Amino acid sequence: VDEALLAKAQAKLDNKTKPLGSLGRLEEVGRRFSAITGSLAPDTAKKVIFTFAGDHGIVEEGVSLFPKEVTPQMVLNFLRGGAGVNVLARHSGAEVRVVDVGVDYDFEPAPGLIIRKVAKGTRNFAKGSAMTREEAVAAIEVGIALADEAKKEGVAMVGTGEMGIGNTSPSSAIIAAIAGCTVREVTHRGTGIGDEALEKKIKVIQAGLDLNRPEPQDPLDVLTKVGGLEIAGIAGLVLGAAANRMPVVVDGFISTAGALIASEMHPAVRDYIFTAHNSVEIGHQMMLERIGVKPLLDLQLRLGEGTGAALAMGLIEAGVKILKEMATFEEAGVASS
Amino acid sequence: VDEALLAKAQAKLDNKTKPLGSLGRLEEVGRRFSAITGSLAPDTAKKVIFTFAGDHGIVEEGVSLFPKEVTPQMVLNFLRGGAGVNVLARHSGAEVRVVDVGVDYDFEPAPGLIIRKVAKGTRNFAKGSAMTREEAVAAIEVGIALADEAKKEGVAMVGTGEMGIGNTSPSSAIIAAIAGCTVREVTHRGTGIGDEALEKKIKVIQAGLDLNRPEPQDPLDVLTKVGGLEIAGIAGLVLGAAANRMPVVVDGFISTAGALIASEMHPAVRDYIFTAHNSVEIGHQMMLERIGVKPLLDLQLRLGEGTGAALAMGLIEAGVKILKEMATFEEAGVASS
User: Fold this and answer.
1) Which of A296, B89, B137, B245 is most buried by its number of CB atoms within 10 A?
2) pLDDT tens-digit profile of A111-144?
3) Architecture of domain A47-315
4) Residue B87 and residue A297: Cβ atoms within 8 Å?
5) Following DSSP, what letter does each residue of B228-256 receive, concatenated?
């Protein structure tokens, strides 16, 4: 983004009736939103969370507490408005759109469901590559196309979310491969597995990395070999949002894996990302450090779906409103220091 | 609050379509709001932030960057809707009511202004007691009466805020007196004073404590000798909210000084408090530890007015909506683990 725009937005904030800098990260948010969109009075009305859904072959190794059938069941729950992300998106005035980029189930067309299925789930990465390179690219292109369409439609800000039983395993594998850290350092309990299952999950992920040997310098190779279709879709949404100068709010651990792939491909996308919250998943912190971003919230969330993004969108809109709506010292007749 | 109600609310949360505990502090908020109000589907519609305004004799010692006239100027800014708290309260769907409990200015009656002036500011506590015990009690009673009136009116949740040039000094004095720590450990830059002014502020507060010798075991004595009228009003609002089983959202450093006085008087009020955010003011952390509460946000705010409370009210309402609106596994036809 243009540094001059950041300075102009801060100058506008500095004339508001408050001590300099006293609204902290709300000011940072307002300033960055301005610079991303190129406006000192940015619009925030239309907000959309894209919840990408995909299945994972790795589930057959017993890495998750929930059965694979829960992925399509939760998609139907999203479409009926009963899931956590629906409740929180309604609260923030955002719309939820569910993207079937790789669920192993044939959905009927439904309002709020975008069917762009690349494959019926990934393959088990403990036994071979999760995807072909063509599949990974196709799933990224789904995300890019959705960002392009959102921009045309007048969407002011997009958020990421995901649903895919088993998808903390590929997320841990991605950060381990890219950062070169141990699997144990970045692998946690997902939906809530016990100690024994956690040990098994670590072994399975390690086996997948040993077998596939993803190239750390080639984020597309990492994504292809140990990633997921919904993670690829999120990477594409981040890339597309940045290309369209549209702020993108990245949810938790799995979404950040997608944002990490995007930022390894094009470091400049970092300027367009707001990270929503610190996940309970231990690998999240390492991803955030690698991207170089600091989340807005720390509420011990570990649900995914876009729930953290929905909450953060509310805070981001608040920061923009500070920039737009607060009176200046002159307007209010208040003495400045 | 009733422990059985906390357990009932958590049982309701545990049936929702999510892994157990995966909404972290949102679940905590929903559970506590339930227990406070005695309902498993609590109302959150009507939210009011009471911004208490008062002046401070200590300002004549040069402890603040802004002149004393800014207190009434900012009150008028609140009434016109142009201040930070107005912007953020509108965003969260809350109403701002300004309470003149001690401003050194005669306001005309105006919508949104509640005139309950106890005195035209405190006296300089570096030269004697800030208030009489009768004044401190009267200001507390203003807050209690406002909580009673809010309850009768059907307010679901109240927030605290304040305006008073110089009011970080009495707040630092209060926590130093109660916790027995040094003035330096709990004194910071307020609206943004430099190094030299900070040294002077520390000396002035120390002089006030040495002269007045407030009794740490008697919170009303501490409030009387080194406190403020708006801080007393906030203490009263917290006491009154708890007595009425109404959740109270406590803003930053100065508001927490008020909540600290209330919780030292009646430890049970802690169960009714939500703390909004971690202030940049260094004494805030010690107050929070003393009360035994953990704020919801950490956004580097240091404006006061109720700005943090306004943002936190949005998160609290989100937590309550999770409890009320999310589908259960059975309703959604989703397999549980």
Assistant:
1) B89
2) 999 999 999 999 999 999 999 999 999 999 999 9
3) 3-Layer(aba) Sandwich (3.40)
4) no
5) -HHHHHHHHHHHHHHHTT--EEE-SHHHH
